[in-house]
């Protein structure tokens, strides 16, 4: 590989093994560094009814996860994300966006937006879903609901 | 990057700049080699009404394109693909599948199939569309119809 700078974005709270897989994929491919868009509290809460941990707590959990997962010594920059297409639409200097399968269909629109802004289109890197013990996807919503823990173990 | 073996599949005929972008993306990310699934004539023609060049001609064009695009000296293996999920469902030893945005939604189902076969799920790498001079996508269908050439130039 020769120089891939990746972006990844999300709310990442509560952090779970699906997020960790996304972060590990970003580390693996991002040999020229990672920009992480972490949603602001206002932006994260506007689209959700569930509880979202405060920004600083989500950032600290992200930093711990990167510390655990980074085998490559990548450069990681965390930025506060205040709207849906921040970073991908205003950062010319990225090569790829790491997404979950659920966000993959937005890649074409993201590249339309980049072209309108005069930026090169980027690749999407789609990390596979991580399944919980019960075969369903791990999600923060399921964790907050008390169905599973952050590693996808079913709570009884 | 540390060891990514990629697969890419298609009919690739007539070969155009959208295909070349897909092949270049596969070369860039595939530092542990590429497996290329090239559709058999029977499989390629079953789903299409347009003319499809014969397998050997499509393979020769692919080999020329790889020769032009490979800056990295990658190992490339071309296999005949006779059904929709060949390679991704029967090849355990790949890390990622390079796809166009139109195929990206199939990644989740591909990984379900891999899990059923006891294989690890793989990443998807989504190469952006390449636009023709008129702002629409380049496609083999448009070339065969005589609207554009293989580089997306509008034919008058």
UniProtKB/TrEMBL annotation, chains A, B:
InterPro entries: Cyt_trans-like (IPR004821), Rossmann-like_a/b/a_fold (IPR014729). This is Pantetheine-phosphate adenylyltransferase. Gene3D superfamilies: HUPs (3.40.50.620). Keywords: Nucleotidyltransferase, Transferase. GO terms for molecular function: nucleotidyltransferase activity. The keyword Nucleotidyltransferase applies. The keyword Transferase applies. It comes from Halorientalis persicus. Residues 8-145 form the Cytidyltransferase-like domain.
């Amino acid at each position: 590989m020769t120089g891939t700078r990746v972006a990844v974005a999300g709310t990442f709270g509560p952090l779970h093994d699906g997020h960790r897989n996304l972060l590990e994929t970003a580390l693996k491919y991002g040999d020229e560094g990672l920009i992480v868009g972490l949603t602001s509290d206002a932006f994260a809460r506007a689209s959700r009814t569930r509880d979202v941990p405060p920004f600083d707590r989500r950032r600290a959990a992200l930093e711990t996860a990167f510390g655990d997962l980074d085998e490559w010594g990548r450069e990681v920059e965390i930025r506060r994300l205040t709207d849906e297409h921040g970073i991908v639409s205003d950062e010319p200097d990225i090569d790829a966006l790491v997404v979950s399968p659920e966000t993959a269909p937005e890649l074409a629109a993201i590249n339309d937006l980049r072209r309108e802004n005069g930026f090169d289109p980027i690749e999407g890197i789609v990390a596979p879903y991580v399944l919980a013990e019960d075969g369903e996807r791990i999600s923060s919503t399921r964790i907050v609901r008390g169905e599973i823990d952050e590693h996808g173990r079913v709570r009884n």
